[in-house]
Amino acid sequence: MQALVIHNLHARIGEREILKGLTLTVPLGEVHAIMGPNGSGKSTLAKVLAGHPEYEVTHGTATLDGQDLLSLEPDARARLGLFLAFQYPCEIPGVSIANFLRTALQARLAEGEEIDAIAFYQELYEKMDLLQIDRSFTSRSVNDGFSGGEKKRCEILQLAMLKPKYAILDETDSGLDIDALKIVANGVNSMRSPHFSAIIITHYQRLLHYIQPDYVHVLVDGRIVRSGDKQLAIELEERGYDTIIEEAQALATAQKLETFPH
Amino acid sequence: MNPTTQQKHELNFDLEFGNFYYTEHYTYDAGYGLSERTIDYICDVKNDAPWIREFRKKALHIFLNKPNPTHWASADLNNIDYNHIRYYLAKDKHPRRSWEEVPENVKKTFERLGIPEKERKFLAGVEAQFDSEAAYSNMKEELAKQGVIFVGSTEGLNNYPDIFKKWFSKVIPPGDNKFAALNSAVFSGGSFIYVPPGVKVRQPLQAYFRINAENFGQFERTLIIADEGAEVTYMEGCTAPRFETSTLHSAVVELVALPGAKIQYITVQNWSPNVYNLVTKRGLAFAEAQIKWIDCNIGSRLTMKYPGVILKGPKARGEVISIALANNGQHQDTGAKMIHAADETTSNIVSKSISIGNGRATYRGLVHIPSHLRGCKNNTECDALLIHTDSRTDTYPAIVVKGQGNCVQHEASVSKVSAEQIFYMQQRGLSEAQAMSLSVNGFVNDLVRQFPIEYSVELKRLIDLEMEGSVG
Questions:
Q1: DSSP letters of B103-170?
Q2: CB atoms within 10 A of CB A107
């Protein structure tokens, strides 16, 4: 099966363990949402999968279509088909969006192959129109002087151009007004296919109105404590994290007790 | 993955770009060391006029009596062994006008460096210097018809003595500094250019300076005169193979822009990391004339170079655009000098430096505006980018502004390539080295855009190459 498979993943930053045995499978073609309170490890999961150098994996595995991710450099993971839409995208002064995307696409080609410049610009303009990004942005430096909303749209533009198999969207909805949210959702929805998966990390189910997930997972204290369909997101919104967490903990305790003979 | 193999392939190819040499049998060799006998040898070979012989010998005495400027400059200067350098090496005294006539190995050298190809594509004239003398020198016929002169310094001296003598060593006298004195004593090669009044040379003239021999010093001397309202762009490129011992390159370049003239002088040098590159460059700008230095310093062990403009006539404008890249073990000590000597003169200095590994980039600037002048303006911007934690940058701006009617502005910044930025780019599929290159190219992008396209491509390639080696 083609899938992103995470098994019993433990990771820490410095001495602080943040992921404490996270297990999750996202088959290719599905959209999964990961929700959870602040500090539960959502962004850490995104960064660990992408290979951020500050995080150390202490235990567990993560594979992409059967290939080990954790031993690879961040760029090799990206070229395998993993994309991360950053919560706080970086500014790259002096490097235009067009140049950056061309270089990134070129890095995926075999030796001797060249990007077709005309086809590249045609596609770039098409995607920019879809995301309602002004065409003059092609020559603007990546994220340099962009508003919060412009940065998020630029992330989705990169997603649309690089066409990864698995995309992680780390709180892409934060800081977006409702119009921008719709535009971003539209961009992601346009990519939905049996060959594309998305993991949508969010606090709120607002974005999930527009990008309907196949599954919703609740991440608490470095572990997935509950999984369900999109109804779970609505339930979370109505009843709050605390209730869900308490129930999940009670359930876990009960399961633990069951596993021990009386 | 393929991108990695592609990089490796390019890397090997590029690193070898300038690093080759052919064993050459020199007809003329002044031998090791520097004395009056060396000067006499050079004068005899070149058939110099008596005043030049005298000029050289005076300069030699200035050189021998001036101490190294180590009270402000790097102590590494003390490591130059002047007795272990050859001061004149030539196979042939006269440059050829067609590539077919150029000796085989010399021709092969310049073909590998791509000079004949560039000449065909976009240059108005080329001079190719191999060690001490130009092997090839040619200019488009239509320019000659307009009265443009583009020859080597020896030919300029012999064939156009009046105009040569009028300006030679007037902008940079031998006593200016120790290395200007050294050059004045043993100079050979370099270009002599004269553009008559009102003539605008549309395509650039190019000189290429190639060091081929070990334990050798290259001392070209360039003099460019743009007469009233004339315009010219001159570009120079430089390379040398990597030898075990260090090599010395000490040029003097004098520019004279008569009223209303424009001179643009572009340098993209890529010295191997054992070259001492100690160069004096200065221009004299008369009323409403403009002189612009675009100076890219990559490679060398130690570069000391501060292109300057003396703003002699009202409304003259001087500009220095400088990019320096100091890699491991290298020190780029570069900057600019702007001497305002007339009302309403303006100057602009933009310097960007990149320090990689333990590389050190120093900006040294001098802006001088005396009190009796009115309406002078200077703008100075220095930006430094540090790549690693042991990279170093220093800024020594000296700005002397007197009087009430002038305006000066200075801005400086230091930034570091952040790990977050590199991670961001790697997440998009770029290798760490590609990410670094892109980041550095972005840093200098606004300056590179001012270059002719062929040179901006070359500079980008050189930066990529330097960054490839810096990661790992």
A1: -HHHHHHHHHTTHHHHHHHH-SEEEEEETTEEEEEEE-HHHHHTT-EEEEHHHHHHH-HHHHHHHTTT
A2: 25
Instruction: Give me Rg for the CA atoms of chain B.
Output: 22
DSSP codes of every residue in B335-392: EEEEEE-STT-EEEEEEEEEE-TT-EEEEEEEEEE-TT--S-EEEEEEEEEE-STT-E
Which whole-number Å values give the CA distances from A79 to A61, A63, A194, A236, in the listed order?
19, 14, 19, 35
pTM to 2 decimal places: 0.84
Shortest alpha-carbon distance between residue B446 and chain A (Å): 7
**In degrees to the nearest 10, what's the CA dihedral of B306, B310, B315, B321?**
-10
Contact status of B419 with chain A (Cβ, < 8 Å): yes
In chain A, which residues have their Cβ closer than 8 Å to the Cβ of B431?
73, 75, 107
CB A146 within 8 A of CB A154: yes
Of B127, B120, B124, B118, the closest CA to residue B140 belongs to B124
Asked if B424 lies within 8 A of A158 by C-beta distance, the reply is: no
Distance, in angstroms, between A103 CA and closest chain B CA?
8
Does any CB of chain A come closer than 8 Å to the CB of residue B10? no
Q: What is the ipTM of this complex?
A: 0.95
Cβ contacts of B418 on chain A, cutoff 8 Å: 90
Which CA distances in Å does B180 have to B79, B156, B301? 18, 20, 19
Residue of chain B nearest A155, judged by CA positions: B428
- Report the candidate in B316, B268, B280, B287 with the shortest Cα–Cα distance to residue B465: B268
The shares of helix, strand and coil residues in chain A, as percent rounded to the nearest 5, are: 40, 30, 30
Helix, strand, or coil here: A124? helix
Interface of A with B (CB under 8 A): 50-54, 73-79, 83-84, 86, 89-95, 99-100, 103-104, 106-112, 141, 158, 162
- B432-448 and A97-106 are packed helices; what angle lies between their axes, rounded to 10 degrees? 150
Q: What angle do CA A126, A128, A129 make, to 5 degrees?
A: 65
Q: Which residue has the tokens 């040379």?
A: B201
In this predicted model, what pLDDT tens digit does every residue of B220-274 receive, in sequence order? Answer: 999 999 999 999 999 998 888 878 788 899 999 999 999 999 999 999 888 888 8
CB contact under 8 A, A107 and B444: no
Spans in chain A with pLDDT lower than 70: 256-262
Query: CB-CB: which of A73, A109, A158 is closest to B426?
Result: A73
Q: How confident is the model at residue B145 (pLDDT cuts 50, 70, 90)?
A: very high
Helix (H) or strand (E) holding A199: strand A197-202
Domain locations in chain B?
A: 24-305
Say yes or no for a CB contact (<8 Å) between A94 and B445: yes
* Domains defined for chain A, CATH in brackets: 3-88+164-259 (3.40.50.300)
Average pLDDT over residues B59-87: 94
Q: Do A111 and B419 touch (CB under 8 A)?
A: no
